[in-house]
Amino acid sequence: MTQNHGGSESHKAVLDKIKNTRNDIIRELRKLIVGQPEPIDQLLAGMFAGGHSMIQGPPGTAKTVLISSIAKVMDLECKRIQFTPDLMPSDISGTEILEEDKTTGHRFVKFVQGPVFANMVIADEINRTPPKTQAALLEVMQEKQVTLGGKTYPLPKPFYVLATQISMEQEGTYPLPEAQQDRFMLAIMMKYLPDDEEVTVVRNSTGASKIKLDKVITGNDLITFNKAVRDVALPENLGGYIVDFVASSRPVKQGCPDFIKEYVSWGAGLRASQNISLMSKSIAAMDGRATVELEDVVNAIIPVLRHRIGLSFRAEVDRVTVEDIIHKLIQAIPKPHKG
Asked: Structural domain tally of the chain?
């Protein structure tokens, strides 16, 4: 049975703080970021829920700028890994080296931490490195720890991996393995700006003035927010809708829509249902509400499922995108009645 902590005063106070913090962060980001309201909101919702996010889009759409700006306003220790074809797993998680104590001559093994030992790791252009190195992030993202030489090293809290991914049409890219993609709570799409907003970017970014971003919250605030988001109530009928929706994305499910059988090779798994629920709770919390509504669920579906559905060859031939499939599913699956 779902516990509803919505009536607790302390929980309501944290939800109000989440709502106000979201507005303060967006106001601060607007000093530097032009447009992109949906990606910003989705990224904040993912972080308030404690999830990792992958940001996709063509070059020059402020993917890395957005992530580094978020780190500044949240006062998080941030490290950036530029993924390249020659990057090794030890370059990410760390390595053991043999050292000698010059006074005693005694040799010992010392662990040298990799760049993942930070509150926020920017995995820049993650699909430019081969799968072997991409896989080094698996344990880090899921368990939030590094295991090497039989020893386990916990990562700082809070911990986020925010990855950017360039378009697969470009040369020198390696598709992320399915298991690796599933570790990301969200796949956020940043598109080219409208002409008027692009003019604003060009004028602002070529000026002489330097923009300073002020800190809005700390890592401890984020840990509190993560707990409060999980305490947001998810009505039973919406939980059932989420499970039915995700199950209908699988072509092996009996009774799934015909367009799923035609255009989808593999659908979303259980982690998708969990993340839609968590994302819905975070969206509600950012609005100061202690209970999820249907609109929250619908807004969570696309960023959670965007990277969890594999298209068939027929979909490529007919130029059907993952977002086309998701929109058709939203129309096809009956929504629960308000009650």
From this structure: 1
Residue-wise burial string across 326-338, b where 16 or more C-beta atoms lie within 10 A, e elsewhere: beebeeebeebee
Chain CA centroid to CA 167, Å: 17
Q: Is residue 94 left, alpha or beta, with left meaning phi > 0 and alpha meaning psi from -120 to 50?
A: left
Asked, for residue 132, whether it belongs to a domain, the answer is yes
Dump pLDDT digits (tens) for 86-114.
888 888 888 888 887 778 878 878 888 88
How far is Cα 12 from Cα 175, in angstroms, rounded to an integer? 42
What does the DSSP 8-state code read for residue 126?
A: G
In which domain, by residue range, is 268 found?
A: 9-206+215-332
CB 102: neighbour CB atoms within 10 A?
7
> Using CA atoms, how far apart are residues 318 and 258, in angstroms rounded to an integer?
15
Query: Which amino acid is it at 231?
Result: D
Q: How confident is the model at residue 25 (pLDDT cuts 50, 70, 90)?
A: very high
Q: What is the DSSP string of 236-291?
A: HHHHHHHHHHHHTT-TTSTT--HHHHHHEEE---HHHHHHHHHHHHHHHHHTT-SB
The pLDDT tens digits of the residues spanning 221-235 come to 999 999 999 999 999
Strands 310-311 vs 151-154: parallel, antiparallel or unpaired = unpaired
- The domain spanning residue 114 has which CATH number? 3.40.50.300
Confidence tier at 213 by pLDDT (50, 70, 90): confident
Q: Is residue 3 part of a domain?
A: no
